Amino acid sequence: MKLGIMSDNHGRMHAVRQARIELEQAGAEAIVHCGDIGGPDVLDELAGCTCWFVWGNMDDPAPSWRGHVEALGLPWPNGPLELHLAGKRLAVFHGHEPGFARAMRAAQYDYLIYGHTHRCADQQVGTMRVVNPGALHRAAARTVALLDLADDSLQFLDVQALHV
Predict the structure, then answer these.
(1) Confidence bin at 164 (pLDDT 50/70/90)
(2) What are the Cα distances from residue 31, in Å, to 99, 105, 151, 162, 163?
(3) What topology is assigned to 2-158 in CATH?
(4) What are the residue boundaries of the structural domains of the chain, listed by start?
(5) 3/129 Cα distance (integer angstroms)
(6) Beta-strand relationship, 111-113 and 128-133
């Protein structure tokens, strides 16, 4: 399975639209968004695809958004996520949560995916691969990542989008 990873668009729906297009063209079969989404209208850009997301420190999800998010077919997150995909165990954080540092130290997942720093990163912590896709806003290079869970390959993709 090829997993598209994005983060930190801060309400820039055009950036999410372009990121989704580029990830799908590169072969992404599902998408994870690591937070700082900016609002429920941004999630409209992820409707119709297999997708999971977490809220970031700049997100302030109102309870009234829940119906809209679920109508899009997206699961409502209640904190960091644990996913089981293609025989792998993944943790998805934004990166600001109290349990993030503990999850990094414990290294109990195959992959820990996070955002928050606006810098792409790929590192190994014990047997766990830690991936940050970078950011779609407030970053010198706007990037997303494509992770192939079958062969453990990772690609960072530059996203050229209208940022309004």
Answers:
(1) very low
(2) 23, 25, 18, 21, 21
(3) Purple Acid Phosphatase; chain A, domain 2 (3.60.21)
(4) 2-158
(5) 14
(6) parallel
